[in-house]
């Protein structure tokens, strides 16, 4: 009798709470959002932004802010294309989920069943690595983004080079964010479907959702009449346009370009457990699988500090981060590539989600994301702009401190062991490819992928990238027993000499960009 009474009581409580929950959703006031977002855009010098918010199966907010390009001054619209960076990863996972539904792939199927050319340097990992391991960043490989960043090497060759990247962690022991693993997952999916990753995403995801403006390559994006231009900040604080960065070679990790309108459809699919406008696209089981925590993400380090500063628990699903935020669960993924920053956020408890993109790499993106979350959850202002301004200032101060530490340890008058032409030549690494050191106009010049930077002598056989690089990196040469320069180390990567000096001319020597770790991130 007591059990029956308890059941009745719980039923009454649940039923009574439904109208309150619905009213809470209906009462969310977004009228102040325009002003809030515009304030961040102005404060953080963001040229343009686009936002769409979905709640209870309806688009409740969609707007463009600012300009696509600071030179043309064309306005951003809900249809303006932005590179969404690593928000792409969830699309790769979803394409695989659709294949799992059709029996053509398994989450725990071995990678070499679908991609025979894929190998890892760790024998245990190579023997057991699965599609799930690729999608959860738990293979043990470090980021190794310089393998692909700025390189013209194609996808198949990048897959071959993965075998030469040493593991940094034990297999399945720790989270290591890894773009090349998502490339492998995308290539495996294409093979399993008898097509390419690009075609798979177009036909199995974009098509059913009516995402007619979304594309998977830079060339397609640039053909659009309504497309954002990437921007970056100069050292003096001014903003300039930059060229689109082509990452087609790792497209399944971050190459999709989309609009606020198209991404609203993607969010509807996520919130409705794989249904879109009454049609089943992906099974509810596999939608939940992608959103479930699979791998613990450390809260320390760049990812935890920059993207999830308020999180007490942080995990990775299949192409999604799973975060607690001020007592609420968020399922999300940021995306960053040169000149663009984006984020897709789901808030399951209120059946809401949103997409945000800006045409400048900036922590202002994080401020805007958390401001939107706070408004949707009716939370108080957490002062995120001040927090991220301090984080940015602290990062710059730490970088300056590091440079001063370098200089303080410099030994005055420590000359190179050889004349400069002796350092010139071709150097190779089986994973990272070719680095060329040229002797041009009395100076050494480093050519690596899209990087072309003067090398300034630091001490002995160590040089630093000079004024043509965005940040300083050390390049140290090593001499063998015969007194010949036979190795160099750049960004902790060892390259072995393969050829003597050769004149290396390039038109981009004075226009190069320095590589950096890409998140996304």
Question: Describe it for me?
Answer:
With 521 residues, the protein is of the alpha+beta class. It folds into 2 domains: 23-396, Beta-lactamase, CATH 3.40.710.10; 420-499, Beta Barrel (Lipocalin). Helices cover 33% and strands 22% of the residues. The protein has 16 helices and 22 strands. The protein has helices spanning 2-26, 33-43, 88-101, 111-114, 123-128, 131-135, 155-161, 179-193, 197-209, 218-222, 251-254, 260-271, 284-291, 301-307, 364-376, 384-408; strands spanning 48-55, 58-66, 82-83, 231-233, 239-241, 257-258, 275-276, 279-280, 295-296, 314-316, 321-325, 328-337, 340-347, 352-358, 425-429, 433-440, 443-448, 451-459, 462-465, 474-479, 485-490, 493-499. The chain has an 8-stranded antiparallel β-sheet, sandwiched between helices. Strands 15-16-17-18-19-20-21-22 form an 8-stranded antiparallel β-barrel. The longest helix has 25 residues, at 2-26. It starts with a helix and ends in a 22-residue tail after the last strand.
